[in-house]
Amino acid sequence: MEKRVTFSSWTIGILFAVPQLLLIFTFFYWPAGQAVYWSLTLQQPWGGGNIWVGLDNFRSILANADYWNSITASLVFAGISTGLAMFIALVLAALTDRQLAGSRLYRVVLIWPYGIAAPALALAFRFILAPEAGFLSVINRIWPGIWDPGLDGADAMASIIVAFSWKYVGYNFIFFLAAFQAIPRSLIEAAAMDGSGVIRRFWDIQFPLITPTIFFLLVINITESFQDSFGIVDIMTSGGPANATNLMVYKIYSDGFKGLDYSGAAAQSIILMLLIIVLTIFQFRFIERRVHYG
Amino acid sequence: MVERTPFLNFFTHLILFVGFVFCVAPFAVVAIAASHNLRDVNDVPMSLLPGSDFWVNIKTAWVTAGLGPKLLNSFIVAGGVAAGKVIISALTAFSIVYFRFPGRMFIFWLIFVTLMLPLEVRIVPTYAVVANVLSPYQAILDVTGFSWLIEKLSGVQVSLNLGLLNSYPGLILPLVATATGTFLYRQFFLTVPDELTEAARMDGAGPLRFFIDVLLPLSRNNMAALGTIMFLWAWNQYLWPLLITTDQSHAMAVTELKQLIPNVGGTPEWHIAMAGTLIVMLPPLVVVVLMQRWIVRGLIATEK
Q: Is A46 domain-assigned?
């Protein structure tokens, strides 16, 4: 869509865009370019600039078992937490949309988790799921040593998945509910007149009509699980035990800032960037075509 | 619509109620744990009846983590990011929608691409830029030969240096440098009727006048929605402040939570940790409760 009526002076028009352009050049394009440069060079230990090493940084990363472990952990985390957060939010939104008594209350309260900082909720869940205090410790009383996120990798992974999903149920709920409410009531009522029940109407009318929202949230949840997980991992597990929760962004941070391996961290950043870009393009190109638009 | 489905209604209520409990429980647990003393909070299972030490614990957490100045920092940064986004996005969207200069579509795509790569992903090089924000310009001058020229002509060696580590601009500016708000405004500006622009031009208003007196007052709803979302987003930032603030004077509240994690060994002081968590999660929660309408509207409009 384009405006028919516009202003003619070029200079003023460009001047309005200058602040934004300066910002994104300095803090987006330059660093992104820098990441590409670093990933192809190696900083010399005694100073004296970077030397060109081509794709060596990528080769050494991809040959590293720790890195593959980190990718696997990220994918497991992304898959399970996205599935959980979306499924629960979808069910809650569909039921809230039935507008029975009390649905207003749910509409207000179920959004709350969205506002909470990931590290704050991580600390809360660290307490709730702590092996020696809080609530899950009860099962350790019955079967000693069965639950310990500090020692068992699977337990640690489960903890960060629970914390992340809890926040994103609130986020997904907002979008699902809005999508359900955008469906014309008359459509549902017509189907009801024809004798279809609540569940039938859900599968035949509501679900197909909200597929765009589902795919949109799928991509957002996966990309967020790559980035917003940092605070949760840092507070709850610090990547441990034995790298079981060393997700990709956390590894970039610890290699780059704790290990001071800028080139390795930059190469990892590039791989993560590519992954996210591919996901985004995938959303635009392939998924959108198979989706009903109401 | 009246429909008799008693069985299904029962399950609807049941599931929603369970969802409600799971959603509220962590808040309740944090608040209750913050009111216990050291012995009670480590009871297994912890008693769900509130203890009597709530204010003592809040005070201890406040003092140990030095939350007072850090909350102030959080307010400044979150407010700064929200204000910066609201203003800069409006300017850019106005430029893209209301003018026809060459390269307009190029600028549009330059901005659009920034949506794809979040700050967390390019964290290492962004940190290097903020350590000296003028380094990109220095490099450009060096490569194009301007530094050499200036040095020859005036005898002054060009070395631009402006570090933003441990400063408010260093915290705020990189968070403002994304496209989120621009597209919200763009969508809205496209719905503003052309007749309004025509009328304003006929009355002799230039672009600046039209922007300030017509477009901005019309965008008030958008500003509220965008401002709220950006405030929450900036308040909840963790990785960026963690890197940029090596000095306590500019630390933000959320990053200080790490100091409250109980040490291994000895009885863990969960009551203090939970009191601190409560303080840090309260301001955004209040914003969510008060601004609910704007959040829902803003989220749905910015992301689509």
A: no
pLDDT digits (tens, 9 = 90+) for B164-182: 788 888 889 888 888 778 8
Question: What pLDDT is recorded for position A294?
Answer: 42
CB spacing of B238 vs A119 below 8 angstroms = yes
Is this prediction's ipTM beyond 0.90? no
- Decide if A17 and B198 are in contact by the 8 Å CB cutoff: no
Nearest CA to A97 among A174, A171, A166, A167?
A: A174
Cβ burial of B15 (10 Å; 0-12, 13-18, 19+) is middle
Confidence of residue A46 (pLDDT cuts 50, 70, 90): low
Indicate whether A15 belongs to any domain. no
CA A230 – CA A226 distance, rounded (Å): 8
**For B76-130, how does the pLDDT look when each residue is reduced to its tens digit (9 = 90+)?**
999 999 999 999 999 998 988 888 888 888 888 888 888 777 777 778 788 888 8
User: How far is residue A270 from each of residues A35, A66, A224, A248, B117, measured CA to CA in Å?
Assistant: 7, 17, 17, 11, 10
Q: Judge whether A21 lies within some domain.
A: no
Whether B20 contacts A106, CB under 8 Å: yes
Find chain A residues with C-beta within 8 A of B24's C-beta.
Answer: 109, 112
Residue A45 located in a structural domain: no
Q: Which two tokens stand for residue B200?
A: 């304003």
Question: Which of A2, A5, A20, A229 is the best substitution to test chain B (most B C-beta atoms within 10 A)?
Answer: A20
Does B207 fall in a domain? yes
Beta carbons within 8 Å of A128's beta carbon, 6+ residues apart = A134, A135, A136, B26, B29
Shortest CA distance from B89: residue in chain A: A20
Report DSSP state, residue B300. H
Chain A, chain B: beta-carbon pairs less than 8 Å apart: 319
CA atoms within 13 A on the CB side of A170: 25
Domain span at A244: 64-290
Task: Round the CA-based radius of gyration of chain B to a whole number and report it.
Answer: 26
CB atoms within 10 A of CB A111: 22
Q: What CATH number is given to the structural domain containing B161?
A: 1.10.3720.10
The per-residue pLDDT for range A86-95, each reduced to its tens digit, is 999 999 999 9
CA–CA min distance B270, chain A (Å): 7
User: Does residue A192 or residue A280 have the better pLDDT?
Assistant: A192
Closest by CA position to B105, among listed A4, A17, A284: A17
Domain span holding position B67:
34-303
Which tens digit of pLDDT belongs to each residue from A216-260? Answer: 888 888 888 888 888 899 888 888 788 888 888 888 888 888 877
